[in-house]
Write a structure and sequence with these properties.
five-stranded antiparallel beta sheet; alpha+beta; 398 residues; 18 strands; Dna Ligase, domain 1
Length: 398
């Protein structure tokens, strides 16, 4: 099978025709299959891939079982079915050449000089003069297993145990392919209610069944089931090749060494417990307004670093801005023109002036300071440059 974007699908069927009792049986089976998908295809059968595509694009039923039949049946098809560049089609049209048959009757050498060897090669592949080997489509392998239960289960521990054979199958499946997964879907099927979905999103490709089982247990404990469970199903996303490496000389905790998987495992456990949307990473955006200069993203896996985009040149030293910004700046009290928050605030260093956004209606004009309160907490505060010159706290340093 080969895909021909945007709307072509090629199947090599010569060796399978006897399984369908010939061409008519195959066409009937394909028509039924596409009807179930609510797709109305145009089916064409030809000895060469390009001929089948051209015939299907013409929009009429087409069957040519041999090379002897092929050229005669291709002759009336318009050249537009070959999807040549429009300037080429217009030049041929001015010569009165609008069908494949008319193009095939032109002298080969003159055709190549005037319209290029690429178009001549297309005609040769079309008629079988040259071989045509489309790139085969290989579907990404995924894991999928289902287990029907003897009894309906409500107890979370029993449900967790019922998944163990599926986890064992997944482990063997991944080990045989030296791959890991980034996302798993555990389905708990009920008699009447829709299936309960439990999605595990991982910070790095994983193949350790014990680790995956523990994550599933964490997530399962947070679910409320509408009905008892009568079947279990485990599905994976596309497989990801595993990068195998040697272990570290030092064990975790020795000489400052640490497990490279600890960060990923922590992220995965938090997401399993709190939900995928509750844990995310940060990425820098090319914007001057602090509230617009970052966005949430998928958390990086162990050992990964989120690189700053090449187009993003931050105009400030990163260490001068806190990672924790408040959802909206909070108004501070003041005395004698100086800010207060549970007491007076001490300003550190010089201000950072930000004036931007006048072009899109989100104009700001602020002087930002790092400040310390009476408890030693470092804050990121600003003062409006325009009247009434109020003070706000915008972020907190860790």
């Amino acid at each position: 099978m080969s895909l021909v974007p945007p709307d072509g699908l090629l199947l090599e069927v010569k060796g399978s025709l006897h399984l369908f009792n010939g061409v008519d049986g195959l066409r009937h089976a394909l028509a039924n299959e596409f009807a179930s998908l609510r797709v109305q295809p145009v089916l064409a059968l030809a000895p060469t891939p390009l001929a089948a595509l051209a015939a299907a694009r013409a929009g009429k039923p087409f069957v040519a079982m041999s090379m002897a039949q092929l050229v005669g049946q291709l002759t009336p098809l318009p050249l537009t079915t070959l999807r040549w560049p429009q300037p080429t089609l217009e030049r041929l049209g001015r010569m009165g050449v609008r069908t494949i048959g008319q193009a095939l009757r032109l002298p080969r050498a003159a055709f190549a000089r005037r319209f290029g060897t690429e178009q001549l090669a297309t005609l040769d592949r079309l008629t079988g003069r040259d071989p045509d080997l489309p790139r085969r489509f290989h579907a990404r392998e995924r894991f999928r297993r289902r287990r029907e239960l003897t009894y309906e289960l409500e107890n979370h521990e029993l449900i967790r145990a019922s998944f163990e054979p599926l986890w064992a199958d997944l482990g063997k499946f991944l080990e045989a392919r030296q791959c890991g997964v980034m996302e798993l879907e555990c389905l708990l099927r009920h008699r009447h209610a829709p299936p309960t979905r439990c999605v595990l999103r991982l910070a790095a490709p994983a193949a350790d069944v014990r680790r995956l089982t523990a994550l599933f247990g964490e997530r399962l404990s947070t679910l409320t089931l509408p009905e008892p469970v009568r079947a279990c199903e485990l599905r994976s996303s596309s497989l990801v090749p595993r990068v195998l490496s040697s272990n570290h000389l030092w064990q975790p905790g020795e000489h400052g060494g640490g497990s490279s998987a600890e960060a990923s495992e922590l992220i995965e456990r938090l997401r399993a417990r709190l939900g995928p949307e509750a844990v995310y990473g940060l990425r820098v955006l090319p914007a001057h307004r602090p509230e617009n200069a970052w966005a949430g993203t998928e958390p990086a896996g162990a050992g990964e670093r989120v690189a700053r985009p090449k187009s993003c040149h931050a105009p400030w030293p990163v260490f001068r801005r806190p990672l924790w910004l408040l959802p909206t700046p909070q108004l501070l009290s003041e005395r004698g023109g100086l800010p207060r928050r549970r007491g007076p605030l001490r300003l550190l260093g010089e201000p950072e002036r930000i004036e931007t956004g006048w072009w899109d209606g989100g104009e700001i004009a602020r002087d930002y300071y790092t400040a310390v309160d009476i408890h030693g907490v470092r804050l990121w505060i600003f003062r409006e440059r325009g009247s009434p010159h109020r003070w706000f706290v915008h972020g907190v340093f860790g």
